[in-house]
Write a structure and sequence with these properties.
294 residues; alpha/beta; Rossmann fold; N-(1-d-carboxylethyl)-l-norvaline Dehydrogenase, domain 2; 2 domains; 6-stranded parallel sheet; 3-stranded mixed sheet; 54% helix; 12% strand; globular
Length: 294
């Protein structure tokens, strides 16, 4: 099996590296060609001139892009070149309706589609320990499982196409709650005059410890918001959650609050910061003259 990787951002490039180590990477393509050239040279694989060329030399096509419109554009360009029996795997976080429409269109060409969003962040992608939430034909998933396991600890099948995106939406609501709680608690700790260097290990190893706190806690307190997961992307994901929730006639207060907070920070130019930059707002609560509810 040879895999073609489309989309070489932070996540996609790390996935490509693990696929190359596993001997599965056949070609790469990226909208910004110079980024693709650097990675192709590093990994010793072909940089496809276009998506048709990538499809022609691979059995499985994997995509990792930022938004629905990006995926739709890639699939539209790729589709005429796809062959019967090929499998397309999308690891992006996009709308359920988007992946369902793509799967239906590809099925007319006898091409199978797996929606396979991931969780674990940039650190998990680099370490090859991502968690994959998959939707699609079970037999197709088993056929491409080695490609996904090249960069993932676990690949879990949740049902038909769209089920992976629904599972990812649940994950993103949980992420909103965790980043809200962590940033608020650490702002409280810092404003209380506590020795936060001593406190962090206690919190991390206690009942409320989490991977997010372990990875981001010290950086948050140092106000280092270099992105592991960009705020603007989490905001986009929460908007997808909103769409699913609206179809159930439900609003989740946590989602609504986090969207509002992110939009305030994004308006201040912080959209490319890590989502833990929410700490900026929480810290303001303890500043004289700003002691009001967010």
């Amino acid at each position: 099996m040879k895999v073609g990787m489309i989309g070489l951002g932070v996540m996609g490039s790390a996935m490509a590296m693990h696929l190359a180590k596993a001997g599965l990477l056949g070609a790469v393509w990226n909208r910004t060609r110079h980024r693709g050239e650097a990675l192709a040279n590093e990994l010793g694989v072909e940089l496809a001139d276009d998506l048709s060329a990538l499809s022609a030399t691979t059995d499985v096509v994997m995509t990792c892009v930022s938004a629905d419109e990006d995926l739709q554009a890639v699939i539209a360009e790729l589709t005429p070149a796809l062959r019967e029996g090929q499998v397309v795997i999308d690891t992006s976080t996009v709308g359920v309706a988007t992946v369902e429409a793509i799967a239906a269109a590809l099925a007319k060409r006898n091409v199978r589609f797996i929606d396979a969003p991931v969780t674990g962040g940039a650190e998990g992608a680099q370490a090859g320990t991502l968690q994959v939430m998959a939707g699609g034909d079970a037999a197709a998933l088993e056929a491409v499982r080695p490609a996904l396991e090249a960069f993932a600890d676990t690949v879990t099948h949740f049902g038909e196409v769209g089920a992976g995106q629904r599972a990812k939406a649940v994950n993103q609501v949980l992420a909103a709650g965790m980043v809200q709680a962590m940033t608020e608690a650490l702002a409280f700790a810092d404003a209380s005059g506590l020795d936060t260097e001593a406190l962090l290990p206690v919190l991390t190893h206690g009942a409320m410890g989490s991977r997010l706190l372990e990875r981001r806690g010290a950086r948050v307190l140092a106000q280092d918001f270099a992105p592991g997961f960009r705020m603007a992307l989490h905001h986009k994901d929460l908007q997808l959650c909103r769409t699913l929730l609206q179809s159930m006639d439900v609003n989740l207060p946590l989602v609504e609050m986090t969207v509002k907070h992110y939009e305030r920070l994004m308006a201040q130019g912080h959209g490319d910061d890590d989502m833990s930059a929410l700490y900026r707002l929480k810290r303001e609560l303890f500043t004289t003259g700003n002691r009001k509810s967010l």
